[in-house]
């Protein structure tokens, strides 16, 4: 069975279809997607975009940069869910922290995200 999807107008930076998600590799698309999200709090939007910009500038190996970028995309997808899994959030953040500690530090500066990282279920 396939989805029947009809798009009228622009769909730039969008993930379309069942189970679709935006990959954080394209910085412009990622930042637009985060900005347009209605499920993310403003402080989280700010740090996600800041973290993605920092990842672009960081002097990391291609493998570390790629892994951290992918984990940032997974973290973002989890943060957009109605029922967030704090364990997954901490796992993605931990992987980012391992590859790019300064990026993880930026992420933890958002109050609502910091609560999830500390295991507090109320963002």
Keywords:
123 residues, mainly alpha
Task: Explain the overall architecture.
The protein is mainly α. It contains six helices and no strands. It has helices at residues 27-36, 42-57, 62-79, 86-99, 101-107, 111-117. It is globular, with a radius of gyration of 15 Å. The model is unreliable at 7-16 (pLDDT under 50).
Strand content: under 5%
What does the main sheet amount to? none
**Can you count the beta strands?**
0
DSSP helix count? 6
Give the helix/strand layout.
Layout: H1 27-36, H2 42-57, H3 62-79, H4 86-99, H5 101-107, H6 111-117
Helix pairs in contact: 1-2, 2-3, 2-5, 3-4, 4-5
Summarize the structure.
With 123 residues, this protein is an all-alpha fold. 59% of the residues lie in helices and 0% in strands.
């Amino acid at each position: 069975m396939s989805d029947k999807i009809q798009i009228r107008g622009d769909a730039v930076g969008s993930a379309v279809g069942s189970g679709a998600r935006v990959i954080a590799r394209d910085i412009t698309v990622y930042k637009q997607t985060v900005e347009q999200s209605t499920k993310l709090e403003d402080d989280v939007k700010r740090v996600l975009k800041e973290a993605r910009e920092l990842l672009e500038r960081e002097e990391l190996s291609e493998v570390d940069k790629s892994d951290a970028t992918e984990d940032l995309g997974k973290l973002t997808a989890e943060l957009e869910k109605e029922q967030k899994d704090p364990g997954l959030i901490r796992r993605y953040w931990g992987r980012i922290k391992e590859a790019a500690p300064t990026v993880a530090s930026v992420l933890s500066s958002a109050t609502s995200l910091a609560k999830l990282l500390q295991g507090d279920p109320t963002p």
